[in-house]
Each structure stands twice: as C-alpha cells, then as structure tokens.
Amino acid sequence: MAGPSPAVAHTRVAVREALTALSLPPDSLILAAVSGGADSLALAAALSFEAPRMTLRAGAVIVDHGLQAHSHEVADRAAAQCRELGLAPVEVRTVQVNLEGEGPEAAARRARYAALETSRVAQRAVHVATAHTRDDQAEQVLLGLLRGSGARSLSGMSPVSATLVRPFLDITREHTEAACEALGVQPWQDPHNEDETFARVRARRLLADLTGRLGGDLRANLARTSRRARDDEEALAHWAESTLAGCAGTASEGIAVADLVDLPRAVRTRALRRLALEAGADASALNFGQLTELDRLITDWRGQGPIDLPGGLQAQRVRGALAFGPRRPVE
Fold first, then answer.
1. What string of DSSP letters covers 180-217?
2. Domains contained in the chain, CATH given
3. What pTM was computed for the model?
4. How confident is the model at residue 117 (pLDDT cuts 50, 70, 90)?
C-alpha cells in the first residue's frame, strides 16, 4: 500500500517532532489555529493524524476577525473542514478588531492571539499550534532588517513560545499547498494576501523579486539567519537574567548601577529591558531609543532626570541605583 505524498509526509513529520519535543502527558489537548488557508488546513490535517497516535487529542479554533464581507461563512467552512478531518472540539470565535492607534495587521494579530489564548483556557488545552511556515519566518526577518531591528527581532518566531507551538517553521508554503491538494482539502484564498497595503504582502513580493535577481534560496537563508540570531539572543538573555538574579533589590526598590556598568552593552540593555518589563512597561511600545536613554543612566551619568517609559512608568538614577516607578505628573 502506497504511503502519503511527500508533502503530506513532511507536514506529519514536522508535527510529530514538535509534539514529541513538548513531552505532553496522555490525553492532552492541542488546538490548531485555523484560518481556512492552505497552511492552517495542512496543519489541522497533520495534527489530526499524529495526535491520536501519540495518545493526544487534537481540536481547532477559528478566529473570525470580521474584517471582510462574508467572513463568518469562511470561518464556518473552515470549522466544517476541521470536523471532517476528525478534530474535536472545533470552535469559532468572533472578535472585534480595534483599528484605532495601530495598523490593521497589528490590531488583527493582537485580537487573534487574545482569542486563541481565551479558547485554549476555555477548552483546557495545553497548547495552540499555529501554521507559520518558513516563508512567514523569512518575511518576518526581512521586515526586521528593513526596520533596523536587533537580534531579538531578527531571531523571528520561536518554535515554542509560552503556550504557542509552531511546527511548520521548516515547512514551506509549497509543502502546505501540495499537502492540501494530495488530501483533497480545498483551502480558502485570502484576498488580503494580495493586498499591498499590508507590509507582509510587500515583503513577500520583495522576497520573490530579490530571489529572482540574486538567485539562491533567499527564504531558506533568512530562516537560517533567524535560527542563528535566536541562539545568540537566548544566550544573551540568559546572561542578563542570571546577572539580575544575583543583584540585590528589585526594579521598584532599585538595582545598584555598579552591578550593571561593567556588563557588555548587549547584556546590559537586555537586563534593562527585563527590569522595565518587570516594572510594568508595555513590551510592544518599549523601543530602542528608550533603552538607549536607560543605558545612559548607567554609563553616561551627568545628572539627567527621569526617563519616561510606556505604560505610565519612569526610571531614574538615585544614590547610585536605578529604580522604576509610576510616572510623576508634571507640576
């Protein structure tokens, strides 16, 4: 009897390896985040095949962002396909995307991840699996390069991040499309994937153009870059955390400047970022310029005043220590 097509085999092996690495107890539930596109349907199919063979359960959650006409029909169709694949439970969650204050991509992503986590908790699932591919990883790295981001951004998406697992980071979009064709699954073609108002679509087309002009497998090379950057980022972050663990005091009480000043800048700024986040700073709004000013409180102290941070915080140097607290109103 013939085995599965090579593309289907690739997706199943990727899911099997990801689940094995998680070392989950029997009967644990994993939810696939499904949009109805080729990537997420290939993930749903692979998860429905592999999970039972590992004494695990597989379900799905579909997030309806309500940003397109008939989006509820797309969500319902994706849910029906998941049920046909044998996934259970299958849930559709409708969200309100707040488009004020940030772009539509960021707003939709924020609403989507919040809905995925809400569904995970409600269904008592241990993880949500997303179908981000090597192509998505390459696009994210390219966008990070264009923004002038550091290693943390260039490291891209991690295979496991808190309760999220991404089995397909070494799987290409060609694999997922071929897997759906081999399985007879009909994916939805999202019109937003052709809309150049979205940065990711522009990055995708730029990647295709650069590959044509420069040759080689640019997507694979960018994904490889992300893995190397992630190794460096994890090592530097561990160094920073170990340093802070050995310091007396806390972000609110104050950390002695002497404990930080001799660290390499790459480690020191990561320690400062960690302190700011522990104090309640908004991670998505904490930027390079603010971290640079924080670092100057350590390395270039000239009596400067408090540094304002996102989340209503400020940091200041007082009697040889760096302390974080609520922002004081201007008198």
1. HHHHT------GGGG-TTSHHHHHHHHHHHHHHHH-S-
2. 6-214 (3.40.50.620), 246-326 (3.30.465.60)
3. 0.83
4. very high
